[in-house]
């Protein structure tokens, strides 16, 4: 049986990074179970970066991996650096090495962002791929021509500057318009990237932020409880219309939050 439905938005705080990773892996498995029961397939947007590595490694272990029908799992990415897939900075490579190479997911179920191309071309092709996958007669908003829902699960991280995916402070949402995927120009100290936009992320069924470390604590507090401009803290843009958001934090990342104790699950929840 699947776990009971979660509230639309919640914050969970864990004692350490290992506990956080294990809990995130279990949320992933619950999301798979629910999607396969309801829709017969599971579409996930995966996150790069250091924090989710532990979670992917745990998902690749036989006990958890064996509980998943990988033939019906479809893997996408929330963003990618414009490097070859073999490059050490590649989000695809990190996920492949920690998870995908260790589970029987069909190759054609893995939808990576082809960043060997120019950022603009990679974004265009990835948006076309997403639209082919998600748009159907049954899953379309007749007024806007967009799908009612997209991913069953989106995994995201959070940068010290409040960015998520490759949505950085100053990202121009108006310029992106209706696009699902956007090229992100290179800046000093950061190469070009390709990112999913809030237009598609906010149609997900469940979004899970996985954040650890005291260096993220200011950003966590600003995103969740601050009163500054959303443009300064792009993670605030992620507000699924019909879905839910779970923030999974270790105690260091949560140290600046005002929180109380949740009695039903024994976990700390921000107030």
Task: Measure the end-to-end span.
Answer: 30 Å
Shape: globular
Q: Class in CATH?
A: Alpha Beta
- Could you say what the CATH architecture is? 3-Layer(aba) Sandwich
**SSE string, helix = H, strand = E?**
EHEHHEEHHEHEEHEHEEE
State mean pLDDT (0 to 100 scale).
89
- Structural Rg: 18 Å
Number of domains: 1
Strand content: 15-25%
What percent of residues adopt helix (DSSP H or I)? 25-40%
Strand order of the largest sheet: 1-9-8-5-2-3
Count the beta strands.
11
Characterization of this structure:
- By secondary structure, the chain is α/β, with parallel strands linked by helices.
- A six-stranded parallel beta sheet has the order 1-9-8-5-2-3, covered by helices on one side.
- Strand 8, helix 8 and strand 9 form a beta-alpha-beta unit.
- The relative contact order is 0.18.
SSE layout and pairings?
Blueprint: E1 9-14, H1 17-39, E2 42-46, H2 53-60, H3 62-65, E3 73-77, E4 79-81, H4 91-98, H5 119-134, E5 153-156, H6 173-176, E6 181-184, E7 193-196, H7 198-201, E8 206-211, H8 217-225, E9 244-250, E10 259-261, E11 268-270
Parallel strand pairs: 1-9, 2-3, 2-5, 5-8, 8-9
Antiparallel strand pairs: 4-7, 6-7, 10-11
Helix pairs in contact: 1-2
Search tags:
alpha/beta; Rossmann fold; 28% helix; six-stranded parallel sheet; three-stranded antiparallel sheet; 271 residues; 11 strands; globular
Question: How would you summarize this macromolecular structure in one to three sentences?
Answer:
With 271 residues, the protein is of the alpha/beta class. The protein has helices at 17-39, 53-60, 62-65, 91-98, 119-134, 173-176, 198-201, 217-225, and strands at 9-14, 42-46, 73-77, 79-81, 153-156, 181-184, 193-196, 206-211, 244-250, 259-261, 268-270.
């Amino acid at each position: 049986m699947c776990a009971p439905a979660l509230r639309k938005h919640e914050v969970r705080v864990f004692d350490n990074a290992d506990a956080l990773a294990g809990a995130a892996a279990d949320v992933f498995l619950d999301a798979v179970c629910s999607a396969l029961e309801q829709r017969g397939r599971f579409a996930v947007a995966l996150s790069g970066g250091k924090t989710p590595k532990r979670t992917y490694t745990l998902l690749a272990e036989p006990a958890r991996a064996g509980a998943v029908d990988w033939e019906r799992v479809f893997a996408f990415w929330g963003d990618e650096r414009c490097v070859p897939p073999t490059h050490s900075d590649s989000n695809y490579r990190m996920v492949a090495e920690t998870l995908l190479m260790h589970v029987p997911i069909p190759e054609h179920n893995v939808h990576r962002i082809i960043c060997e191309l120019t950022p603009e071309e990679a974004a265009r092709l990835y948006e076309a791929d997403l639209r082919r996958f998600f748009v159907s007669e049954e899953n379309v908003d007749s007024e806007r021509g967009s799908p009612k829902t997209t991913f069953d699960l989106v995994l995201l991280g959070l940068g010290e500057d409040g960015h998520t995916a490759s949505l950085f402070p100053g990202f121009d949402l108006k310029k992106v318009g209706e696009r699902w995927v956007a090229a992100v120009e290179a800046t000093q100290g950061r190469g070009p990237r390709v990112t999913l936009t809030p237009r598609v992320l906010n149609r997900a069924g469940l979004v899970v932020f996985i954040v650890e470390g005291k260096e993220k604590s200011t950003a966590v507090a600003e995103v969740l409880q601050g009163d500054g401009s959303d443009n300064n803290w792009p993670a605030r843009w992620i507000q699924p219309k019909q879905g839910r958001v779970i923030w999974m934090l270790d105690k260091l990342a949560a140290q600046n939050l005002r929180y109380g104790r949740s009695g039903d699950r024994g976990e700390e929840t921000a107030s």
